[in-house]
Amino acid sequence: EVQLVESGGGLVKPGRSLRLSCATSGFTFGDYAVSWFRQAPGKGLEWVGFIRSKAYGGTTEYAASVKGRFPISRDDSKSIAYLQMNSLKTEDTAVYYCTRAPGITMVRGRRYYFDYWGRGTLVTVSS
Amino acid sequence: QSVLTQPPSASGTPGQRVTISCSGSSSNIGSNYVYWYQQLPGTAPKLLIYTINQRPSGVPDRFSGSKSGTSASLAISGLRSEDEADYYCATWDDSLSGPVFGGGTKLTVL
Predict the structure, then answer these.
(1) In 3-state terms, what secondary structure has residue A13?
(2) A82 in contact with B, Cβ within 8 Å
(3) Mutate which of B31, B40, B47 to disrupt the A interface (most A C-beta within 10 Å)?
(4) pLDDT of residue B43
(5) Which residue from B43, B56, B101 is facing A44, i.e. has the nearest CB?
């Protein structure tokens, strides 16, 4: 059974840092990209970023709202992905989800979708 | 403001067929697959439809997806009370080089 479990959320002051972890099981972690999303209270889903598998360079892409602040990394030996959240702002308050991201190679390039989601971890940024 | 446009709400009675629309542009829906996610109250999103009209194992065939040009639709037939949830469409955007989502449609079963 595919499982993703986020951890590391909590209450943090503006300007501080927090690192979220996404522990996975039930699939070959190294074969997949992993993506992070967030959902502010009462709002819709917002893509945060993703990290490709090593076969596709292990490179990362980010939403403009977090680029330069939220680096994503992965440890294939532990089947864990990380979201490092720096210079946090009150508007970063949300439930953060990690997802498995299968890729599809199309004419214009490789595209990803998100088939399994963790239950999420709440991050509250407040003074 | 979401890149993809969905109606904020939809409703139907048990047994009815309802559709939820999703409008985009040539750089997203017009040139990529469309996905639909279901989010039951208080839970994480769940993949409902992938690559326009494929269902993951366990998703009933009451759910179906379609796409035409720069728009897509999710149809739910034989509506049931347990279908009450938020539904999100998603796709890739070639201009943004990343995934984009609709704002979500809250489905109420009357």
Answers:
(1) coil
(2) no
(3) B47
(4) 95
(5) B101
